[in-house]
Amino acid sequence: MAISKNIELDNGVKVDGAYLRVEHLTLTKDSMTFQLRKYVVADGPFFSEDVVTAPYILEGENPFKQAYKHLKTLPEFADAVDV
Questions:
Q1: For the chain: N or C, fewer Cβ within 10 A?
Q2: What is the tens place of the pLDDT at every residue in 58-79?
Q3: pTM listed for this prediction
């Protein structure tokens, strides 16, 4: 499970079709925190990571699915596609 999108880095370098994967997810009863790692290719080293905190619904879907759904609600990931 992952998403893909075109990214422009702070230094102006563009990564078309960057592979974004949720990793190291931790849960509490009402929130989750995870690392969002960004890769040029799925099996390569990551070039950037962010720590994201989001709501977690205990009775909801798999927490990883909830993490990806949350990301897609954010303006910066609105154009991301599932891969």
A1: N
A2: 999 999 999 999 999 999 999 9
A3: 0.92
